[in-house]
Specification:
mainly alpha; 4 strands
């Protein structure tokens, strides 16, 4: 057994060195690290604050943040979408400029960018169409079907917003982030200060995420310094604290079932200010991350995570629900899985379930990763596989493929 472990460790170290050697020297590895941390933060946050409570044969969603509001700081750690939009704005702006320099038009560039985002979506939609039909035919209650389908497809809103901003990159690449921030401010002022209609908040679905996206574009233009990161971090944190303490905004930076106001659906001024603080922290962490990513093992882990970023994001809720459904076979509600999240006992039990969720996600990754990574086809001469690379410019992914070939 020890010899087997040693061989696996040596093989892993060798793969890490090959990935490191295959990565272009001008690759900004810190950007890939920030993207990986942002995706994994969202996954971890959902697994910690999403509960499916079994109640008389019906499953309904619940959150420990409703019963244990002092856990709100957990959402500050794991609500990392602003970092993903920051990186997205940086990479898209840089990629579009590079494409234009190479004579590639807007259409081919956008097709390549969106192809990577939406190829994995087809598999999710197909599976959950079949699952939904099966649940209805088996007599599952409408509340259970609605809860499960909503959780499975909830990541889609993020992709639609991100795709819209990506498509608008040529228009917003030079936009000052203060403009969309002003839109968010005025929308919230009308909604909460003057009793305006609630639907106005959905304007912030675009304007709110446009703020970190345009910060990323400014980063690409070289307009952000270390001092800019400090101002964003301190100013964003101070504004968030003030809005929560005196502005009446919720402390949780995610949606809480049953709460009158959500900071995330749609984004509020508090969520945007918090996102700016996260952007500032990301900018300050860039240099330390660059140094850390020089370690082959650390870089290999980040490169592999980026290779399957959309697969991980799209299937993590399915993994949670699969474990929850299989747990029902035990006959009695399992703590941390089917019980009401109203105490520290639930929190401890949920932490123990996280490795099981990760194992279920690994199964989903094994089954569906090819939809994101592209397929293989045989060459005319025989059986040697020809790797189909993603046209997204993701050099980290290409480095993984070259190292494995």
């Amino acid at each position: 057994m020890r010899e087997f472990v040693r061989r696996r460790v040596r093989a892993g170290a060798g793969l890490a060195r090959r990935i490191d050697a295959a990565t272009p020297p001008d690759r900004d590895r810190a950007v890939d690290a920030l993207r990986a941390f942002a995706i994994l933060g969202v996954v971890g946050g959902h697994w910690l604050v999403t509960a499916l409570v079994s109640d008389g044969g019906t499953l309904h969603a619940a959150s420990p943040l409703r019963h244990l509001p002092w856990l709100a700081p957990v959402s500050w750690v794991f609500q990392t979408l602003a970092v993903f939009f920051l990186v997205g704005g940086h990479v898209a702006t840089k990629g579009y400029a590079s494409a234009r320099a190479r004579g590639i038009g807007y259409g081919p560039w956008l097709t390549a960018r969106l192809g990577r985002l939406f190829r994995p979506v087809a598999a999710v939609l197909a599976l959950w169409t079949a699952v939904g039909a099966g649940l209805v035919l088996s007599g599952a209650g409408p509340d259970t079907v609605h809860t499960l389908i909503k959780l499975a497809l909830s990541p889609m809103w993020f992709l639609l917003v991100f795709a819209g901003l990506t498509a608008a990159t040529p228009l917003v690449a030079r936009l000052n982030p203060l403009w969309p921030l002003a839109v968010v401010l005025h929308v919230d002022l009308v909604r909460f200060g003057f009793g305006g209609p609630a639907w106005l908040g959905w304007i912030n679905l675009a304007a709110g995420w446009l703020v970190p996206y345009t910060v990323g574009a400014a980063w690409t233009r070289g307009e952000l310094t270390r001092r800019s990161g400090q101002v964003l971090l301190l100013g964003g944190a101070a504004a968030t604290a003030g809005l929560v303490l005196w502005g009446g905004y919720p402390a949780a930076m995610v949606g809480v079932p049953g709460a009158s106001t959500s900071n995330l659906n749609p984004p509020t001024l508090a969520a945007v200010a918090f996102g700016l603080a996260q952007c500032g922290l990301a900018l300050l962490l860039r240099e330390p991350l660059c140094r850390w990513m020089r370690r082959p093992t650390a870089w290999a882990a980040v490169a592999l995570a980026n290779l399957s970023a959309m697969t991980i994001f799209l299937w993590h809720q399915t993994a949670l629900m699969a474990v929850t459904a299989l747990g029902l076979l035990a006959g009695a509600p399992l703590p941390g899985l089917h019980t009401v999240p109203d105490g520290l006992g639930w929190v401890a039990a949920r932490l123990a379930w996280l490795p099981v969720f990760a194992l279920a996600l690994a199964v989903c990754w094994t089954a569906f990763r090819t939809y994101e990574q592209g397929g293989r086809r045989k060459s005319r001469g025989g059986s040697r596989p020809v790797r189909v690379h993603r046209p997204s410019g993701d050099a980290g992914a290409r480095a993984v493929r070259r190292a494995q070939s």
